[in-house]
Amino acid sequence: MSLATPDGGPRRATIQSVERAARILKLLGAGSWRLGVTEVAERLGLAKGTAYGLLRTLEAQELVEQDPETGKYRLGPAMLQLGNAFLDNHELRARSLLWADSLASRGAEAVRVGVLHGSNVLIVHHVFRPDNSVQILEVGASIPWHACALGKAIAAYLPDAQRRSLLDSGLVPLTGRTVTDPATLEESLATVATAGVALEDQEAIVGEAEIAAPVFDDMGHSVGAIGVVGPVERLVPDGRVSATLLAAVRETSRGLSRDMGAGRVRSRGPAARP
Amino acid sequence: MSLATPDGGPRRATIQSVERAARILKLLGAGSWRLGVTEVAERLGLAKGTAYGLLRTLEAQELVEQDPETGKYRLGPAMLQLGNAFLDNHELRARSLLWADSLASRGAEAVRVGVLHGSNVLIVHHVFRPDNSVQILEVGASIPWHACALGKAIAAYLPDAQRRSLLDSGLVPLTGRTVTDPATLEESLATVATAGVALEDQEAIVGEAEIAAPVFDDMGHSVGAIGVVGPVERLVPDGRVSATLLAAVRETSRGLSRDMGAGRVRSRGPAARP
DNA sequence: GCATGTGTTCGACTATATCGAACACTGTTT
DNA sequence: AAACAGTGTTCGATATAGTCGAACACATGC
Question: Which of residues 192-251 of B touch A (CB under 8 A)?
Fold first, then answer.
C-alpha cells in the first residue's frame, strides 16, 4: 500500500487522496484526449473504485467534465478559470504588461515573458508583433528551457545546484540546431551570464530566433525572463544579432527588474487592505 | 456555504479532502491576492493544521506556490498549464477556430466564443478585431450570462429547468442598462429563441455591444455561443442592428453547429487511434 | 519585555478513503 | 441469439490515512 518516495527525497507528509487527484488532473491535461475510469486507474495504479471516487469529486467541483455519451472524462471549465486567476495574481506578469507592450512597439517584434516551471519555460505573457499577421497566442504554453532564449537567460543566473539539475535533466532536440549536450550548453550559459542576454537561433522552431534577458527580484534571483521572438532574418541579419533589438531587450529587462525589486523593498504589502 | 444542487440532483458521496483542496484552489483564485494558512482555514472552517496539510500537498504538485518571504500562498504555475490543457481538449473551441477567424475578417469585428459555467459565460476563444488597435485577450474571463449576448443565446435554448435556475440566481447589474429583472429577461429570451440571435447593448460595458447566436451539438443542446463584440456605433448604427453582421453571425453559428453535430453522429471517434 | 500574530509540527482518535468484487449496461463476437 | 468482453458504476468491510487541537518556533508591534 505504501508508495516509496522516489530516489529517497525528503519525505514530507502529503495527503494521499489530494495528491492522487492532482495526478489525475495532470494526466487528463497531458494526454490530449479524454480518458475513461479504467484507463485512469491503470495508469496511476489505483483500484477502479478509487479512481472513480476521485473523478466524481473533481467533477462535482467542475475541475473535470464527463462526456455524457461515452462516459469518459476530460478537464473541466473551472480549470480554465483557475489558470486565468493564476495569471491575474502573477506579480511578474502584472508588472511586465507595460514593459512588454513598449518593447513590442519599439522593436516591432512579438514579445514573450516566461518563468521556469520544472524544466520548461512557461509563457505567462505574450504580445503580438505589431503588424496585421495572424499569430497564435502562446500564453500557457511551455517550452523546454534549453530550446529558448528565455530559458537560457533564466538558467544562466540560477544557483549552481538548480542549474546543474536543469542541465542533467533529459535535453531533447526540437530541431536540428537544438543544443542537447550538457557541456556545450553549460559553456553557452557562462557566456550568457557575462553578456546579460541570451540568444536562440532556430533551436525550437526552424526559421525563428529569440533574444531574451533575465528578470531579477529584490533578492537577485532570476525569477523569469523577457524577450523578443521573430524570423531569423530580422533578429539575426547576416548572422549578426540586431544591435537595436539587443539594446531594447536589455534595457527592458533592467527596467522590469527594477520594478520587481522595488515593489518588495520599499513597501511591505502596499496593495493589501489594512 | 452549501451550493444547492440545481433541481434537486442526487447527492453522491464525494471525497472530503479532495473537495476541500478544490475549494482552497477556488478561494485562492477568487480573492485576487495571496492568502495565509490561517485565513484559508478560517474561511473554509477547517483546523489550521488541516488547511496546512492540504496546502502543502497542493504546493508539492505546483498547483499552489508559497511566497518564501511572507509564507502566504497563491496559485501555482501548474494551474496555468492545466487551464491551457482544458482549452486544447475543448471540442467546441477546437472546431470554432476556423469559423471565428472567418467571422472576424468577414465582419471586421472581434469574435468571442463562450460556454456556460455556473451562471457565467466562460470565454474559450477570442479573435481580435482585425485592425491595429490594442486589445486585451479575454480567453478565460467569465461574464455574467445575463449581461452578454453569448449568455442570452445559450440560455434561450436551455431546458426549462436550467433556464429557470439561471433566471433566479442573483442577477447583478454591471452598467445602467443591464437587465436584472427575471420577468423582462425571460421575455427577451423568448424573443431570442424565435429570432435565433441574441443582442446586448451596453449591458456589460458602456459603449460596447454584442451580437451572438447559439451553437448546438448533435443532441440539439445549446453547448455554447459565438458572436461579435464591438462599439455600439458599428454594431447597432442608429439603433438598428447591422443586418450584415447579423447575417454573418447567424450563418457562422449554423455552420459551427453542423460541425459539432456531424462530428458525433457520422463517425464515432474518428480522431482516436485504432 | 510581553502580547499577538504568523506558519509549522506532532500525536491520538476515529472518521474516512481505499480496495475488490459484483453490478448494469453496451456493443461485439460467436 | 446467446455468450463475451468491454465499459462506467455501486457497495460494504477493513484499517489506513486524514483530521483535529494543542503546542511549537519565529516574527512584529505595542
Answer: none
